[in-house]
Structure formats: structure tokens, C-alpha cells
Amino acid sequence: MQLRITHTTRYHYAEPVHAVLQQLRLTPKSRAGQNVIAWSTTVEGGISQLQYDDEHNNHVELVSFEDGRTDITVLCEGEVENTNSTGVIGAHGGFAPLWLFRKATPLTRAGNNVRKLVKSVGGDFGDGDVARLHDLSNAIVEQVEYRTGQTEAGTTGEEALDIGYGVCQDHAHIFIAAARAMGYPARYVSGYLMMNDRVEQDASHAWAEAHVDGLGWVGFDVSNRISPDERYVRVATGLDYTEAAPVSGLRRGTGEEKMDVTLQVQQQ
Question: Which part of the chain is the Transglutaminase-like domain (predicted)?
């Protein structure tokens, strides 16, 4: 399946901004089952300062905004060809060792809520690791209903379980915390998903991956109760959202910032 993606992020500031530096993880790479045919990133009102691959093999671009700007636009577009690998990514790569993905982070620390969730899944490995991880995925979405406006970027997996509502980011953090508590290395994935019912979207997507002996990394989209197929484009991975966020950065100034995202993912 060949996908065409156009992702535009527009920033508007109430006052001219100064000393703004953004870290962009918006460039997918060719990987197992994913071939990037073409990709470009354009920043109107910004200057690319540096590009590098981080410890997770994500392509990162550091962009500074021109001094005194009030409007900046980041446009990413390209074409990616995918094959359906039923969520199996395969052997571990990148510069970060596999053991690092067992490490808890503030967003994925396992507390009482996560431990109860793990206990509810059970300890029988007779059906295999992948089946058990799918059971975990189903248990999460049954306890945490998908609903926007209930959580924010800093909400932890523990907090989302307590609230009982969340979005794909929350589902991924809960899965990662629980999978690590079950003994699996796990990581966060940010990327794109082609929706079957619409082209226009207002946000990118997120899911999780767990490392299974004999298979390698396997993806789990908790929000949609499936493993990623050819409709998914992997862009960045990390221990949690903070290491795989499409855009992060800092700025000097106290003026109000407004951000508008438009996204189109469609089959060519």
C-alpha cells in the first residue's frame, strides 16, 4: 500500500517571539515493511540548524524560529510504501541497548493501578507472548475508554487508569508500563494512521511495541485493538512520549501560543 501524507503545523503567537528552538521528529525512515519513497520538511519562518539520528535511530531536526516572528508554519509531506507484517517489526536496532526498554520513566512508572491491571491479565503463558500482550491491550481499552479532553501531555499511565479515560498516548503509556512490569522491553511509537472513514485528521497517532523473544519488536495499537498493518507509518520511537514526540522545544517569552494542526493521510 502506498500512502501520501501531508502534515501541517501552524504556530501563532500573540507577541513576537525570540529565541525559539524546536526539535522535530517528523521524518520516517525505511524500515522492515516500510519504504520511504520521498519526504520533505519545510519551515516557513524558521532555519534548520542541525540534523542527526538519536539513540533510538530517530531522525531529528533542530529548527530555530526567526527572531520577532508571530507566525510559523512547519510542513511535512511525502510518500511511503508499506506491506502488512501483522505488527512484527523484527530484530532490535538503533544505538540504545535492549535492556534500556525495561526502564520505568515518570510517564510509564508502574504503580498500584498498573499492577492490578497486570494481575487481571493473568500469568498463564500457555497461549504465547503475543496472545498475552493482546489480552493486555484489550484489558486496557476496557478500563480506559477513548475520550479526548480528559488528559494532557503530562498525564501518566497510572493517572489515566485512575481517570478511566484517555487517548492513544495514554493507552500506549499504560501498555508500556504494564508490559515492562510483565518482563517485556517496551517502547512508545509516534506516527501516522490512514483512517478508513476519512482523509482529514487533526492529530498524528501513537501506539506501543513490546519485544518478544523469537520475534523481536511487535506493535500493539491499544486504541484500535489491533497490531499495526500497512495503514500505519512509523516515524519515531522512545521510552515514552517525551522521546518520540513529533515536536518539542523551548522559547523565550510569555505571550500566548496557538497551534493548529492539519493532517491528510490517504492511499495513492
Answer: 160-224
